[in-house]
Design brief:
alpha/beta, Rossmann fold, 2 domains, 6 strands
Length: 217
């Protein structure tokens, strides 16, 4: 069996890293705490296109002399140095591998950025492969990225998808025939249908998935 895994805000604390970077950068650009809060909000957990955010920053903070492309690169890559896995995640992934599970990342985002995160956190040495939207040309919840990930894992049987995003991860994987595991981070589930399992933290969720896999054997 294969366990497929979202990266940002599932395995790694992407929002925490971005917020930390934003606080330092906005102050350096001459902004204040209100501007930091604004940037975190318009970032939308990484879903707002980076060129759009760069243009908004230049306009809001009056950075007419700042190079747009350079600012886009800052938005994409500088926060990666602050990326860390959530507590307990690496141990839980090792436990899944110990029972013979293959682990494959399915993530949206810039390919260079996402591979930098995999290298920084050590996940590159743990997972069997990665399906990254920036390399494939389509992103979650598009069924094609789930199909590409299955092909990468060389599996067409029962598979789990672990993620935090309701539409991109859970709805997309459900439509593709996966068992679904949602990390809530304290949020309430709002859809009429439900994921297979739900937990508040990624480590706890991976533990539940491991137990479900063991019970199904």
């Amino acid at each position: 069996m294969t366990v497929f895994l979202d990266l940002d805000n599932t395995l790694v604390d992407r929002d925490g890293a971005f917020a930390s970077w934003a606080q330092k950068s906005v102050i350096a650009w001459g902004g204040d705490a209100t501007d930091v809060e604004w940037l975190i909000e318009v970032d939308a957990h990484g879903y707002t296109p980076r060129p759009s955010i760069a243009s908004m920053i230049i306009e809001r903070l009056h950075l007419a002399s700042v190079d747009l492309k350079g600012l886009v690169d800052q938005l994409r890559y500088e926060h990666v140095d602050r990326i860390e896995c959530y507590p307990g995640v690496l141990a839980r992934l090792d436990a899944l591998r110990a029972i013979g599970e293959r682990l494959v990342i399915i993530t949206n985002g810039d390919a260079r950025q996402q591979r930098m995160k995999l290298q920084r956190t050590g996940l590159a040495d743990i997972v069997a492969g990665s399906a990254i939207s920036g390399e494939l040309g389509f992103k979650k919840p598009d069924a094609r990225i789930f199909e590409a990930a299955r092909a990468l894992a060389d599996t067409d049987g029962v598979a789990w998808m672990v993620g935090d995003h309701v539409e991109a991860d859970i709805a997309g994987a459900r439509a593709a025939g996966f068992e679904t595991a949602w990390v809530s981070h304290g949020r309430s589930w709002s859809e009429e249908w439900a994921p297979t399992v739900v937990e508040g933290t990624t480590a706890a969720l991976l533990g539940v998935v491991e137990n479900r896999i063991r019970a199904g054997r």
